[in-house]
Every structure is written in structure tokens, then in C-alpha cells.
Amino acid sequence: MRPASVVIVGAGVMGASVAYHLAARGWRDVLLVDRSDGPGRGSTGAATGGFRAQYGTAINVRLSLFAREKFLRFRDEIGVAPGYLPAGYLWLAGTRAELDILRAALEVQQAEGLHEATEVSVEDSGCAASRCSGGVADRSHRAAPRRGRIDCRRRKFARAHSDRGRARDGRVLVLWPTPGVTGKPFDISVDREWIDTVTAMAHRRVPILHHVAIDAACCRAGLYEMSPDRHALLGPAPGCDNFFLINGSSGHGVMHAPALGQLLAEIMSDGAASSLDVGALRPSRFAEGRPNPVSGLL
To answer: Is 109 within a domain?
Structure first.
């Protein structure tokens, strides 16, 4: 057995994206390993597949725009359709404080070239919304396999059948993050109390769902891999130049994986990323006391 030129730990969407982009650059003997019984057995497969560029920091907007370009070229480059559907993405503000967050983020988005992001009024609630051409992507078709991420904040979602509203696989997804179970950071169980709580919230926000049954058997949870500033870590680990990090995407992994995988392949091959300035994602930023600003737009 020949020794590997590079070993990638984690066969989720990030690991597979890095493996693909390294191979595309001529790397050989790339070994992708995972502790599960196959590729994609972690949180990537539990992700909802949402895609957006509406973030409050420039680097995340740039990553989304870069990733969107790659999703649009995905069929030509990879040979399969990614299921990318630019159906739009809408943030609703229920309070003045939330509206201020959206407006501040909108300025960042437009400054970074996301010109289709706009503010629209919602007269029946007296607030406003920010919208743009976000959408969804099919997690079953991509350069990275189906699942595989870890961390300690869980995300849950329920499924409700409806003939009048569709978000994924012919169903409406009802989602709400939780802090997780104390002392069990990797617990992905779904409790009845959470289902009842999120169902009541959905009924208040979208009354048409009031008579739609929740499919409890399909309710499940996933994990957010949170970093302290809710931004990815990308690049060599401090003090170990041949150990590279691509983690901590904080819920943005599936949508940013095509971009981050290419960027890390550039770093590993050329010593620096050339497609995008990713200095804001360097792992050393925390020790330097220079984390990214934390936005309310997770």
C-alpha cells in the first residue's frame, strides 16, 4: 500500500470538496477517512440545503457569491446537477432591533456586489424584510458526499405535508435551533416538547400550516459546528504548517463547501488562496485577538 500524499479527516461535504479540488490540481494518493461506516454519515446529510448570500460580514458574502458561481457551473464541471434552485431567500424582522441588524447587513451585502438584495416592506406586520436570490441545493448531488460534520450545537427540523407550500422534497420544513442537551454536545435526539414548540411557532408565523400534520417520524436533528466568531477556520493550524483546518462553518458548510474546498486546495498547493482573500478566516485570528464581528444573521 502506497503512503498517502495527504490524509483528509472527515468524509463530509468539506472533506470531499477538498479531496476533489486537490485531485483536480493534480494531487494523487489523497486519502479520505471517516470514523463512520461510509461517507456522509454526519450532519451534512441532515442539512436543509438552504443557500443564501445575506450575511453581515464581507467574507461570508464573498464566499456565498463564489460558491454560487460554482453551483451554476456544477453540472459542466462535475457531471451531475447540484439541485440548485434560486428560489429566493427572505429574512423577516419582527422587532426594531432585528430590522436594524438586517439593514446593517444589507449595506455590507450591496457593497460586496450582492445588488439584488433589497429591503421590502411587510405592511401587515409593520416591519420589513430583506430578500435576494438565495435558494436551496440538493445535498445528494455534489462534489462532496452526503454527510459528515461534527460539533456542539444542534439544529432540529420537522416536516409537515402540505399541498400549498413546498420547501424541500415536496414538504415544508419547520426549523428552530436549540442550545442542545447539557452534558451531551453530540446528542441529536428529537423530543416531543421541541416538536410542539416549533409547531406552535410555525402556526403563528404561517397560519396556513395550522391544519397541516407534522410527520413526527421524519423529525430529526443535526449539529452546527460552531466557531467562536461564527466564521469558518481555513488554513494551516498555528504551530503546525502541514496540518490544515477547514471547519467551524457554523451552519454554512453545505452552501460554502464548493468555495472553501477550492480555496484550501489553493492554499495547500500554492501557499495562498488566489480566488479570494481569506485572511479573515485564518485559524490564528483568535490567538491574535482579531476575530470576525459576530452578526445576528447566523
So the answer is: yes
pLDDT of residue 177: 86
Residue 125 predicted with pLDDT over 80: no
108 shares its domain with 166: no
* Long-range contacts at 102-106 (CB < 8 A, ≥ 24 apart): 102/128, 102/129, 102/130, 102/297, 103/130, 104/56, 105/54, 105/55, 105/56, 105/130, 105/295, 105/297, 106/130
**CA angle at 213 for the pair 210 and 217, rounded to the nearest 5°:** 145
Q: What is the pLDDT of residue 87?
A: 83
> What is the four-CA torsion angle of 93, 250, 85, 90, rounded to 10 degrees?
0
> Strand, helix or coil at 189?
coil
Tell me, yes or no, whether 177 and 208 share the same domain.
Answer: yes
Q: What is the mean pLDDT of residues 250-279?
A: 96
Contact 154, 176 (CB under 8 A): no
Tell which of 201, 223, 245 closes a domain.
223
Residue given cell 451554476 in the structure block:
72
Give yes or no: residues 217 and 184 share one domain.
yes
Give residue 285's pLDDT: 98
Q: Which grid coordinates are listed for 52? A: 443564501
Domain that holds residue 169: 152-223
Tens digit of each residue's pLDDT (9 = 90 or more) over 152-173 = 334 455 555 444 333 556 678 8
Confidence of residue 27 (pLDDT cuts 50, 70, 90): very high
Retrieve residue 6's grid coordinates. 495527504
Domain boundary among 167, 197, 223: 223
